[in-house]
Every structure is written in C-alpha cells, then in structure tokens.
C-alpha cells in the first residue's frame, strides 16, 4: 500500500489526485469505438432510477460462501506469490515474473483475454542480491540491514569509520565538508524507541466501527494539525534530500546507513526494519539522472542506536558493509495484469465491473500483505466465480497493478488510457512534486469507456477480514450496499462510512468520476510492524480472514455485475477548480479598506 488511510499522502491524493495527460502506445484491445460526448457529462446510464429494494440472490450468496470458505485456494496463491515469486519491486525481474504468473493463473482458472497492459516507462530495473553490515571494532557484531531500493552496489565489502551526519537545513552542510571521505555515514539522529506497551495486533471493536461510521466535520477540512506538520516536514525533506545525496557523493563517502522508522505502537523495533522509498536518499531514485550515487542501507534501530551511543561516548567505531545489487535496465516499462469474465446480457455486456489490487511490493519482505493479500483475494474472487460458472450480465474484469508504491502509476496509467485524465500543472512549485501530488491545470478529458464502467472494488489494507466499505462520499450507493451486506453480518461485515480513504488504487478511478471503493479491514499488525517491512511475509497472512475477504468481495462484484442498473455516481470532479474553491472570498467585509 502506497500510503495508509491515516497518512498524510491519503489527504493529498484525495484533494489533488490528477491523472497524467499524455497518451502513449499501449494495449487497446478492450477499447470501445469513439462516440460523441454527451452535452452533460454528469448524465449517463448510472442516472437510471435505483430500486428501493435490491434483488438479492440468496442462493448465489450461499454458493459463493461454500466455494470460498470450504474450497478456498487463496493460501496456495499466497505461498506461490510470496514464497516463490518473492518481493516485486516495479521494473524488477521479479515484477515481470509476477505479471506472467498472474496472467497464466487467471487463464488457467477460466478467465478470458488474460494479458499484460503496458502503462509506460517506469525507470531503472533493480534487484537486491545480498546485503550485510557488521561492526568490526570496538567489538564484532552482525547487524540487521538491507539495501534501500535502487541503491548502487559497493562492489565488494567496504570498511570505514562510522560518523553521524545530521543535516536539517542548508547551514548544516558546512560542518561536514571535507571530513567524510571514506567514511560510513549514519545519516540522522537516533530516534526514541518506546516500549511496546500496546498490542501490535488488533481488530476493530464494535465501538470503533460505530465511530468510523460517523462522518467527521472539522474546522480544517479533514487535515489535522498533526497531518499539517507532517506535510511541512515531508516537504522540507523533499526539498533537501537531493542536495544531501549529491553532497555525500561529492564527499566520496564509502556508504550510508539510515535508521529504520518506527511503526504504530512502537512496532518498529525488535529487529523490524521498514525499507521503502522513504528510506532511500532521493525523491525518484528509480529514474536515471536522479539515481542514488552512494550505497545506502536501512538498519534496525537497535543496531543503529548501539553505534550512535558509542560515537557519542567518543569510542571509534569501524563498520564493514557489502551491498550486492543488480540493475537490469534504465528504461523498464510497467505492466498491469488484466483478465475478465465476459458479460452475457446483450444490453449490458459492454459495461464493466472491476476488481483489483496492486501486485508490486517493496523488497525487505516478500510483499505478502502489501499487497499480496489484495492480489490473491482478487484472484480468488475470479476463481470462485469461474468455479461456479457464473454468467454475469456485465463483464467482470480483474486488474492487478504495478507501480502503486511509487505513486499509483499502474492504475493511473490504466485509467488514463481507458477512461480519461486531466493535464498537470507545470508551475515551478508544482514541477518539483511527484505527479500524484501535483494539481490539475485543466478539466478532465474523458474517454467513451468512462461511461461504461459501473464501479471498481479494491483491497489494500493488509490481511485483515473485511468489516465494511468506505463509500468515498457517494451517498447514493449507501442504501444499495446496506442491503448487500445484510446477509454478510455473520461474517463481520456491518459498517458503511461516508468517509474517504486514501493511499491506494481506487483513487485513480474516483478521480475521473468512476465509483471506486476500498474495503474497511481489520488492522491486525499491518501498521505496527508489517507495512513495508522485513516482516511482510507469508506468516502474516491470516487464512480465515482472506477466505472471508474473498467471499465478501465476490458478492460485491457479482451483485454489481448482475443488477439492472449501474452503480450511481457522485458529480463529476472538476480538479481544475479546486484551488479557486479553497481561496478566500473577496469583498466579504464591508468595512475593509
């Protein structure tokens, strides 16, 4: 998951997610012929009158439950993906292996038109082969560490004196200039390591679900002071990080060690390391010309702390590190795996219901819960429906995205190519931001297929069972989903919330006016110690929860594919107006001079 629902990037994506405007030559097998745009783009088949009472096929509910709960294969998919394919960094050989494996598995289960869609150039392919770090004096010790993504190699073991470097602003560079050649730099202060005095594994209580169902109305429009401060800190770091990277390269350091961040409830301890793009020294280290120029590893906080304390006590420390990695190309493309169960209703078969999750992951673990869980549940949904020989009225399409972790690239590219996009601002203050954070400079440019998709269902909050649905402020869909989940109450599905949630691929659909939904899931230990960590492995998958999730998602997909009407939509977004909508009103105060 690119960012959890509680992280600052969730707000940024919800408030400013545009889609790339440039079209590229991609797979267009499923494209529909161009059609004249309607006068009012808010009007369409989704405006058909919705029934007060949904047609619930209780027999199909029972069949889906039996197949998904008693004859599940979700954990077989989980082991094959996490244990055999392994971590799946976008652009890497493992990512290509995962694309091919999912395509072939979807074909084998009976899906039609299983194929890979190229969403465009990503950047450098990279693979970690081996990394280790040890202390050689004043004592010997083996440390827990891995290379940060797209780090260059050390070209064999290197040894150097350890030194702490803490650069918070431009004036800090001067104190280190000319003093770092051949050193192994510990970049940053030692962080606090609180005791683990709260559970690292938890499920939603009834009260927490009731609270989640309430829509908060706040003075700062959903952005808490804490989130605002995190945003400011993040932006300051973004502005400085490339300068730090170049400075360390110019100083000819032997290597860099960064401390692992913490998880919720102190979960970033006990040897857990979080190794994602936030640990890398650079904003876009996967792009040639912006690559990291010195070897970088992320280290367990306990090991990092030992070295820092020795140095603070004026005890010289010598470290040895070996970063063995392989680059596989400078211009690797990203691909999504796509397959479908064709619709059978002559009047509805061209309409589509989509389900998916992201296939890519980070590298420290095997990407089992983020988002192997969402991938294997989506695959299990398709397997269940194929096993039951479902003949859907609408086409059911599964898509497994790549590039989610770097900025929703796979789903954004798919949406751009099939449904529409908005041009991005090229203003100087916007050009320095990642594309997913840049504001739009014009209105949405929609494609004919945008009118033919009923909805998209996404799973990307770990391995926990489904407890409900984030409605993304789509009030019209609430009475529909309330009826859908009523027969699933015994499985723990009870909650609908009008709240938005962010950080994953449903946002790409929501941004162009398509109903996109992320499920509410039990948190388990996802945010405490698993998300983007070396503990994101098969053992963190919960079989019962994944079976339940596949059943629930299959029910939602089936219902959406079979009902007479498309799912209702919110008003079409106007991203080009957002900046003005938030601007202060003019001439409000009659006494103003």
Describe the structure.
The chain has 15 helices and 16 strands. The protein is α/β, with parallel strands linked by helices and 593 residues long. The strands form two sheets. Strands 1, 2, 3, 4, 5, 6, 7, 8, 9, 10, 13, 14, 15 and 16 form a 14-stranded mixed beta sheet that branches. Strands 11-12 form a two-stranded antiparallel ribbon. α8 links the parallel β9 and β10 (395-401). α2 (58-70) runs antiparallel to α14. The radius of gyration is 25 Å and the shape is globular.
Keywords:
14-stranded mixed β-sheet; alpha/beta
Draw up the topology in text.
Layout: H1 8-16, H2 58-70, H3 74-85, H4 93-108, E1 112-137, E2 141-143, E3 145-147, E4 158-165, E5 184-187, H5 206-212, H6 225-250, E6 255-259, E7 296-299, H7 301-312, E8 318-341, E9 352-358, H8 368-387, E10 395-401, H9 409-418, E11 420-421, H10 428-431, E12 445-446, E13 453-458, E14 466-470, H11 478-485, E15 495-497, H12 506-510, E16 516-521, H13 526-530, H14 543-562, H15 578-581
Parallel strand pairs: 4-5, 5-6, 6-7, 9-10, 9-13, 13-16, 14-15
Antiparallel strand pairs: 1-2, 1-8, 3-7, 4-8, 8-10, 11-12, 14-16
């Amino acid at each position: 998951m690119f960012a959890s629902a509680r992280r600052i990037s969730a707000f940024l994506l919800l408030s400013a997610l545009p889609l790339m405007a440039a079209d590229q030559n991609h797979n267009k097998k499923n494209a529909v012929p161009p059609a004249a745009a309607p006068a009012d783009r808010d009007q369409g088949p989704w405006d058909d009158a919705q029934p007060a009472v949904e047609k619930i096929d209780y027999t199909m509910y029972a069949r889906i439950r039996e197949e998904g709960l008693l004859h599940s294969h979700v954990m077989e998919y989980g082991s094959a993906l996490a244990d055999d394919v392994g971590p799946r960094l976008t652009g890497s050989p493992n990512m290509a292996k995962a694309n091919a494996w999912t395509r072939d598995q979807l074909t084998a289960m009976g899906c039609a038109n299983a194929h890979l869609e190229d969403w465009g150039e990503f950047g450098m392919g990279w693979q970690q082969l081996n990394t280790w770090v040890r202390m050689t004096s004043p004592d010997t010790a083996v440390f827990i560490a891995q290379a940060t993504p797209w780090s260059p190699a050390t070209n064999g073991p290197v040894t150097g004196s350890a030194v702490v470097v803490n650069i918070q602003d431009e004036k800090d560079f001067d104190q280190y200039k000319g003093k770092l050649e051949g050193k192994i730099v510990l970049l940053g202060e030692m962080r606090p390591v609180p005791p683990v005095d709260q559970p690292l594994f938890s499920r939603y209580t009834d009260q927490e679900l009731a609270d989640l169902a309430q829509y908060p109305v706040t003075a700062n429009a959903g952005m808490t002071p804490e989130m605002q401060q995190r945003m400011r800190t993040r932006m300051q770091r973004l502005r400085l990080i490339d300068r730090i990277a170049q400075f360390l390269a110019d100083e000819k350091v032997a290597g860099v060690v960064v401390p692992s961040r913490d998880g919720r409830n102190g979960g970033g301890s006990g040897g857990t390391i979080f190794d994602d793009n936030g640990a890398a020294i650079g904003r876009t280290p996967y792009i040639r010309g912006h690559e990291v120029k010195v070897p970088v590893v992320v280290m367990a906080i306990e090991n990092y702390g030992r070295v820092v304390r020795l140095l603070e006590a004026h005890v010289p420390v010598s470290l040895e590190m070996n970063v063995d990695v392989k680059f596989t190309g400078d211009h690797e493309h990203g691909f999504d795996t796509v397959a479908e169960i064709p619709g059978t209703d002559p009047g509805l078969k061209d309409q589509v219901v989509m389900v998916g999750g992201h296939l890519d992951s980070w590298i420290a673990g095997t990407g089992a819960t983020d988002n192997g869980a969402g991938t294997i549940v989506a695959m299990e949904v398709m397997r269940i429906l194929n096993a039951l020989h479902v003949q859907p009225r609408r086409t059911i399409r599964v898509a497994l995205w790549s590039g989610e972790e770097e900025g929703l690239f796979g789903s954004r590219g798919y949406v751009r190519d099939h449904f529409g996009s908005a041009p991005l601002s090229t203003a100087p203050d916007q050009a320095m931001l990642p594309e997913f954070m840049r504001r739009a400079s014009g209105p949405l440019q929609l494609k004919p297929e945008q009118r033919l998709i009923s909805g998209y269902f996404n799973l990307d909050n770990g391995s926990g069972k489904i407890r409900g649905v984030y409605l993304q402020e789509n009030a019209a869909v609430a009475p529909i989903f309330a009826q859908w989940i009523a027969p699933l109450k015994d499985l723990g599905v009870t909650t609908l919330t009008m709240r938005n949630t962010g950080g994953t691929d449903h946002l790409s659909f929501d941004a162009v006016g398509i109903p996109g939904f992320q499920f509410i899931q039990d948190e388990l230990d996802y945010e405490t110690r698993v998300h983007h960590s070396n503990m994101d492995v098969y053992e963190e998958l919960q079989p019962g929860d994944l079976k339940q999730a596949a059943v629930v998602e299959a029910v939602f997909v089936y219902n959406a594919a079979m009902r007479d009407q498309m799912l209702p939509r919110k008003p079409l977004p106007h991203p080009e107006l957002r900046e003005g909508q938030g601007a202060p009103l003019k001439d409000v105060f009659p006494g103003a001079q």
